[in-house]
Design the sequence.
């Protein structure tokens, strides 16, 4: 059965993690892969940009502790080629602290500000006011893959191949910097105006040398080693690729139940129901990703992610052309203008009192002087 509503991520913190990331200077060198952008190279362009430069045009989505707004930069020209609309993720500080997500939010900012890839959402600037922290990102207008998949019910192998291949390139890129993503699902994949996917929501992303132990992610997409608290790493993202591939081809995830506990049981039990119409090569790809033994899992063996690119299911894919965005995407979302929100839920505007820094300027130094929570988000 296909869940119709977006699935919520869970996080049960077992260990203090991401300490290096929440450290104002970025933590010990050992946690920073060599090629990832250094502080001084980070492409955030806050210089001169203020929260009050933006007007709110709508609400694009809501999450566990905040919402994502569509905003327009007031002084941008009306030139359609210049970017004037952005997505502004607004996270309420008290909720972040109450749900013990300070380290995750700081990690999201730290990681997103340092990565740059055609299939990953861009982060341009971050801010804070007395109530919230804000992340200014590119507005991706085509809606969630989740919505398109539920509308189509299932995708053909060719359509699935296009989307899965882009995600594999994005994960391969992240893993090359020792970043694990940990929340792959169609709800976190947005279609840009050309129909290419952009990975969003880096709330659970983490830099790891080897393994980590926090139980987080979305039940249907959790690898067995996460459920068993066995320590998990990059292999858990490749497991999630198997779940995503199955869900795109079949229309519902391979392990499904009404309760998270039931889902965990099915994942650990490992039985996969194969619909009759599913071709053997697709089955072999999904099975290779959904190997409970992570040492034998596709993407995590001696050949690394290259084994995925070489899998016969991907035969014919021009990986370089795909990364250069030269291949026609299967679904081109209808959008009439850069602020078109037809692919998003039409949620109410937030009350002005809930976004004080967008309404009236609050200086960072004043916030940090008077706001007892602010110091936890020093980098914002
Ligand atoms: N850059 C963007 N452009 C357009 N819409 C976006 C963008 N980023 C997020 N959204 C919309 O807002 C929704 C919530 O965003 P996101 O998942 O980042 O928030 P969250 O608070 O971390 O959510 P969750 O509780 O699921 O972790 C997305 O599913 C998407 O519909």
Sequence:
């Amino acid at each position: 059965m296909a869940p119709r509503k977006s699935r919520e991520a869970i996080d049960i913190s077992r260990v203090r993690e991401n300490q290096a990331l929440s450290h104002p200077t970025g933590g010990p060198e050992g946690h920073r892969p060599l090629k990832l952008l250094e502080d001084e190279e980070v492409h955030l362009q806050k210089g001169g940009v203020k929260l009050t430069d933006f007007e709110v045009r709508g609400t694009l989505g809501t999450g566990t502790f905040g919402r994502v707004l569509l905003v327009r930069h007031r002084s941008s020209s009306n030139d359609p080629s210049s970017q004037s609309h952005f997505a502004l993720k607004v996270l309420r500080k008290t909720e972040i602290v109450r749900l013990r997500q300070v380290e995750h939010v700081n990690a999201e900012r730290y990681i997103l500000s340092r990565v740059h890839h055609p299939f990953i959402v861009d982060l341009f600037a971050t801010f804070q006011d007395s109530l919230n922290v804000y992340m200014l990102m590119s507005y991706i207008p085509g809606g969630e893959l989740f919505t398109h998949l539920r509308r189509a019910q299932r995708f053909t192998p060719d359509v699935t191949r296009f989307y899965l291949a882009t995600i594999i390139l994005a994960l391969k890129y992240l893993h090359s910097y020792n970043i694990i993503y940990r929340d792959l699902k169609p709800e976190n994949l947005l279609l840009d105006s050309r129909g290419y996917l952009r990975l969003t929501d880096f709330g659970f992303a983490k830099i790891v040398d080897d393994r980590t132990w926090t139980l987080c992610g979305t039940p249907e997409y959790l690898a067995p080693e996460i459920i068993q608290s066995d320590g998990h790493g990059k292999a858990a993202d490749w497991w999630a690729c198997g779940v995503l591939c199955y869900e795109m081809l079949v229309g519902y995830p391979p392990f499904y139940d009404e309760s998270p506990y039931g889902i965990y049981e099915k994942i650990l039990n490992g039985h996969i129901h194969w619909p009759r119409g599913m071709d053997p090569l697709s089955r072999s790809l999904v099975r290779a990703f959904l190997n409970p033994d992570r040492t034998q899992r596709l993407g995590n063996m001696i050949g690394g992610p290259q084994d995925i690119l070489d899998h016969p299911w991907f035969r014919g894919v021009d990986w370089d052309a795909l990364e250069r965005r030269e291949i026609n995407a299967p679904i081109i979302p209808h959008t009439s203008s850069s602020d078109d929100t037809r692919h998003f839920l039409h949620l109410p505007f937030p009350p002005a009192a809930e976004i004080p820094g967008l309404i009236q300027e609050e200086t960072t130094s004043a916030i940090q002087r008077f706001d007892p929570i602010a110091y936890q988000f020093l980098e914002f």
The domain at 26-37+144-323 is CATH 1.10.510.10 (Transferase(Phosphotransferase); domain 1). The two ends are 41 Å apart (CA to CA). The mean pLDDT is 87. Residues 157-176 form the longest helix (20 residues).
